[in-house]
Amino acid sequence: MPQRIVVVGAVAAGPKVACRARRLLPDAHITLIDQDDLISYGGCGIPYYVSGDVTDEKELRETSFHVLRDARFFRDAKGIDDVRILTRVTAVDRKEKQVHIQDVQTGETGVLPYDKLVLATGSRPNVLPVEGRDLDGVFTISSLHKAIAIKERIARGQVEKAVVIGGGAIGIEMAEALTDLWGVETTIIEFMPQVLPRLVDRTLARMVEHHLREHGVQVFTGEGAQRIEGDGGRVRRVVTPNRTLEADLVIMSAGVRPRGELAREAGLLCSPMGAIVVNRRMQTSDPDIYAAGDCVETLHLVTGKKAYAPLGSVANRQGRVVADNLAGIPSTFDGVVGTFIMKVFDICVGATGLSTEVARAEGFDAAEGMAVMSDRAHFFPTQALMFLQMVADRRSRRVLGVQGVGAMGDGLMARIDAAAALLPRRPTVDDFGTMELAYAPPFSTAVDVLNTAANILDNVVSGRIATVEMAEFLDWMDDPARHPEWLVLDLRHPREAEPFLKRFPDRWMNIPYDEVRPRRDEVPRDRRLILVCNAGTRSYEIQRFLVTIGIDNTLVLPGALNVARRLGPAWWPEGTAGD
């Protein structure tokens, strides 16, 4: 008798399991079930559908050769025996090895027997427990249906002002979508002190925040929504502890949680947060039941702890592993390192592994190194600055994560992907410093930014460089009384330094980099010197020289003024580029 495989869930992991299992097991009887009528769509493309970059929602459901992935496609093109949309699985009977189903439209019930069951039930959005969350015009990004409804509302001219609650990746992407094409006056409010919390560190997050503001998106961090108010059942405003924001549309983007209820009710082992527990073969606590995608718990390969990674890319990789094991091909999914990249107007931000903040919270003695340099040869016409930060444990020198901001394109992604591939192997700073990477002037520099970040971090963990944190420097610029003994020694060209000398004559001096050695006697010995240039490289070199002549009261500003300018400080001289 053919093996009966039932797959519950048909968005990402489920279709991957069903289609690969069909290729490997031509005689199996495969059933694919989903409670929705829109299946196998690119959920991560929803913000780009709302923005208009993707013009029709069908494009999110099409193959690369423009065939719609609907029930007919999976039956006729992929050979799945039984595709049931608008069908809900209400229970799993492990003893009888059958699932109880219900037609969403008619209410008709039935049972389906299985030999092997696959749960790919996905995730659901977190709905904040605030007053007014049920008002018309309050949305979560939970399905393609919601995205269609949002876009239709905007297209009808019903939305002039929007509030996005949550400054994570999806919240930022939705804010860009609303602002860029539609001109909606959009505000992000984020409960944590920064956007992209736990994904990137404060400095890079502030660069993203400033870039959002430059493109017309208001950003308020450290604020949560207290309540949502409306008139006549329609949303009208969002109230935080500090302000009231008018809104015709509210999007809750406060993360997601796994849909593990079906598994838990069937007696399968689930995590405290409700994710289904699986082994490396993606088997649940019942060896005849597998699970994959946003509904499962996985392993973080840097911390060694359990993790949750609701990404379509992860779901597809896990789905392949499930199908292999169903076909008797030993295959494992070992875990994740937590890799992401996203577009923010005309820049991109990405990370892999741990941020400094998270690494320290996990018990590592974390240090960081920031490289600011061209993403390709500085003489190549399309070069642009890339800001790449590497995090490592001081004692072991093990690299824990890499994060960065760069111009839109593939440059940053190439470096993040290279780091992601190496992180599971517990690499050291030295491994990254000597890592071989492709080089040609249109693509990279002879010493790549990834190598340079490692070299800078090597200097940090080896104690060869003394630095001041960017946040502390900015606080001092706003309030010089914090460190009255500090003095900036600007190593740039006099034309670059002049606006700063005029604005801060009592705490800013200039000796160009190539004149410090012959003018060494002019370097003050009675002040704490903050060495600045555009990227930090010249500052480090001069710090090393000054030590040799007995001047060791210096601090280097990592990332230097190229970073500071992109944080949008109020004191920055108008019209000064800085890079």
Automatic annotation (TrEMBL):
Its cofactor is FAD. GO terms for molecular function: oxidoreductase activity. Pfam families: Pyr_redox_2 (PF07992), Pyr_redox_dim (PF02852). Keywords: FAD, Flavoprotein, Oxidoreductase, Redox-active center. Coiled coil: none annotated. SUPFAM superfamilies: FAD/NAD(P)-binding domain (SSF51905), FAD/NAD-linked reductases, dimerisation (C-terminal) domain (SSF55424), Rhodanese/Cell cycle control phosphatase (SSF52821). This is FAD-dependent oxidoreductase. It comes from Dissulfurirhabdus thermomarina.
